[in-house]
Amino acid sequence: MGELFVFDHPLIQHKLSIIRDVNTGCKEFRELVNEVSMLMAYEVTKDMALEACEVQTPVAKAKCYHLAGPQLAVVPILRAGLGMVEGILDLIPTARVGHIGVYRDPETLQPVEYYCKLPNDIEERLIIVTDPMLATGGSAIAAINFIKARGGKNIRLMGLIAAPEGIEAIQKAHPDVNIYVAGLDSHLNDHGYIVPGLGDAGDRLFGTK
Questions:
Q1: Regarding beta strands 50-56 and 61-67, do their DSSP bridges make them parallel or antiparallel, or are they unpaired?
Q2: Contacts made by residues 185-193, CB under 8 angstroms, sequence distance 24+
Q3: Residue 58 burial by CB count (10 A; 0-12/13-18/19+): exposed, middle or buried?
Q4: Active site residue 108
Q5: Cα angle 10, 82, 98; round to 5
Q6: Distance between CA 77 and CA 86 in Å, rounded?
Q7: Which residue out of 24, 79, 150, 200 is catalytically annotated?
Q8: Rg (alpha carbons) of the chain, rounded to whole number
Q9: Which of 8, 57, 108, 190 is catalytic?
Q10: What is the structure's pLDDT at 109?
Q11: What separation in angstroms does the CA of 191 have from each of 16, 123, 164, 204?
Q12: Do the beta carbons of residue 182 and residue 18 sit within 8 Å?
C-alpha cells in the first residue's frame, strides 16, 4: 500500500492557512502555492539518486555529489496542477515537464484523456504528478493510469489538500503510489468540494469563476 505523507512543517502550515483564506487574492495565492510546492518537493525528492564527482574549490579538490542520470518529471493535471510546477522547477530546474488533461464524460461519468504529452524517457524518471485538490481522486487515478500505460513506473502524487475519500480511492487503485499533501481535511460535500478546503484551486490560481 502506498504511503500517505501529511506535512506538518510550520512554514507549510503557515502558508497553507493564507492559501485557504477567502480574502487572499489571485497574485498572492499563486505565489504561496509556488512556495508550498517548493517546500514539499524538498521532501518528496529526498531519495533521488546521487553519483560522486570531484570539484575544484578555490583551496583544493573536493569529493562531492550531484544528481545522477535522468531524474525527475513533473506532470501537472490540467489546469490547476500547473500552479504547483514553478515551485518544483525553482528547486530542480533540470526537471522535465509533461502535461495531462482529463475531463469527466457527462454520460458515462468516466474520466477521459483529452491531452497527454510526456517526456520520451518517462520510464526512467521519478514522476511527480501534481494536483492541488485530491477530492474524489478520479482525475488523479486516471492520470496515473495514462502515465503507467506509457511506461511510467516510479510515480508520486503531490497535492495541497486531500479528502479521505480521495486518498482511499487512490490507494485502492494505485497501491504503489505514495501521496504527499499539505493538509488532510474532513470530507467532501454534496457538490464534491473538499470541506473546509480552499474553494476551486484553478479559479483562484487563474482568476476565473
A1: antiparallel
A2: 185/161, 187/163, 188/135, 188/136, 188/163, 192/135, 192/136, 193/135
A3: exposed
A4: yes
A5: 120
A6: 14
A7: 200
A8: 18
A9: 108
A10: 63
A11: 23, 36, 15, 18
A12: no
176 is catalytic: no
C-alpha cell at 75: 506532470
| pTM, to two decimals | 0.93
Q: Which of 30, 104, 136, 150 is catalytic?
A: 104
Asked about 104 being catalytic, the answer comes back as yes
d(CA 36, CA 104): 28
SS3 162: strand
Q: Return the DSSP state at 123.
A: G
Contact 89, 74 (CB under 8 A): yes
CA 44 remoteness from chain centre = 10
Q: Take residue 142 and report the three cell numbers written for it.
A: 486516471
Question: What are the pLDDT tens digits along the chain (209 aa)?
Answer: 789 999 999 999 999 999 999 999 999 999 999 999 999 999 999 989 899 999 999 999 999 999 987 789 999 999 999 999 999 999 999 999 999 998 877 777 677 889 999 999 999 999 999 999 999 999 999 999 999 999 999 999 999 999 999 999 999 999 999 999 999 999 999 888 899 999 999 999 999 87
Task: Tell me the one-letter amino acid at 25.
Answer: G
Concerning whether 121 is annotated as a catalytic residue, the answer is no
Phi, psi of 168 (to 5 degrees): -60, -40
